[in-house]
């Protein structure tokens, strides 16, 4: 078992996704600073933040509550990623890099949740 939330693989992958997202968003049009960029950043940051918050919760239901918020924010990012691609704000290479990172994060987060559920 990990001692710190920073040791949780899902958190590490989610944190990396945030860094990749911020880098990609720096190239968005200035008029999206308070629109799509703001929403995308908020949702991206919410993923590792909720994993970290849920990590120290004592009860299984409380932990899963925060991890479910992280899952919701992850899916919100998936929507913003498609939108960013379709609006031409990111190229296909950036899209695939972010999408792959998001998929890996999703798989690890789902596994983390299953581990908590199955750990009696």
From TrEMBL:
Organism of origin: Marseilla massiliensis
Protein name in UniProt: Four helix bundle protein
InterPro entries on file: 23S_rRNA-intervening_sequence (IPR012657), 23S_rRNA_IVS_sf (IPR036583)
Pfam short name (any one): 23S_rRNA_IVP
Superkingdom to which the source organism belongs: Bacteria
